[in-house]
Design brief:
By secondary structure, the chain is of the alpha/beta class. Helices cover 45% and strands 18% of the residues. The chain has 9 helices and 8 strands. The protein has an 8-stranded parallel beta barrel, surrounded by 5 helices. Helix 3 crosses helix 4 and helix 4 packs parallel to helix 5. The longest helix has 25 residues. The chain starts with a strand and ends in a 5-residue tail after the last helix.
Length: 263
């Protein structure tokens, strides 16, 4: 098994000193969530500088696209008629992500990973999008990121970490609907001994069925001291994913203030 990817989702201001501290704890990738809105690239000097700092210290950088605000803005502008909304949302997603990633590339900060959270497409207020419409919007963001940063790996993240039927249905439909190529499936998870087996089964099935790397995102947990399982159990579950497809974990920086990563 190759070395696991260990990402940390950092809250608050991230300095070079803080990055170095995280690096000593075993982190090899910084995970940043960026709210995508119209004109985001014009306001992104600080985040571009962060990406450059991350790379200068020998770490990788993952950018999570926060698309909810962008899509709600489109809905406010054009209304909730699906055809008009999707057309505008595709364009807004592509243009803003492409301009942002072009800026990153120019600053020597091209992301190594780009994550899209799939639940955002079913949570836009006032809209019920068909799966084909959701796929078109996701494809626009993937195309934009890859056009500016061809080497970045695409992560599609879902909250369905223990519901295999629901998860495999979503990824099946994405492929059938013409979804663009992606690289990694990320499963958001809360540490719990009662659901670890379900998580493991889901990872195994998704890795075989879709031939994708699998990662676990526990960054929603700021404290694991009362959890019924620990970080070593997550590592064990990832290490037994078939075909060497267990990729890694996303942690909260607050968890890493209190716990050590498993070597």
């Amino acid at each position: 098994m190759s070395e696991l990817c260990r990402m940390v989702n950092v809250s608050g201001v991230l300095t070079k000193d803080r990055i170095n501290v995280l690096k000593t704890k075993g982190v090899n990738t910084i995970f940043s969530s960026i709210e995508i809105t119209d004109g985001v690239a014009d306001r992104a000097d600080a985040i571009a500088s962060l990406g450059s700092d991350v790379h200068s210290l020998g770490l990788k950088w993952c950018v999570n696209l926060g698309l909810a605000a962008l899509y709600q803005g489109v809905a406010s502008e054009v209304g909730t008629e699906n055809r008009m909304f999707v057309r505008k949302a595709e364009r807004a997603g592509f243009e803003n992500v492409h301009k942002l990633f072009t800026k990153f590339a120019g600053a020597g900060a091209a992301p190594d990973f780009v994550q899209i959270e799939v639940e955002v497409y079913s949570e836009i207020t006032g809209l019920t999008l068909s799966f084909e419409e959701q796929t078109r919007m996701i494809n626009a963001c993937i195309n934009a990121a890859k056009a500016a940063s061809p080497e970045c790996r695409i992560i599609l993240a879902t909250a369905d970490s223990t519901d295999n039927e629901k998860a495999k249905k979503w990824y099946n439909r994405f492929q059938v609907s013409g979804g663009k190529a992606f690289d990694i499936i990320s499963l958001k998870y809360t540490l719990d001994a009662e659901t670890l087996y379900d998580l493991s089964c889901n990872m195994s099935d998704l890795s075989r069925r879709f031939d994708k790397d699998i990662m676990i995102d526990i960054s929603g947990m700021d404290d694991i001291s009362s959890a019924s399982i620990g970080l070593e159990d997550i590592d064990s579950a990832i290490n037994i994913v078939p075909l060497d497809k267990g990729f890694g974990t996303v942690y909260s920086d607050l968890v890493l203030d209190k716990a050590s990563l498993v070597a």
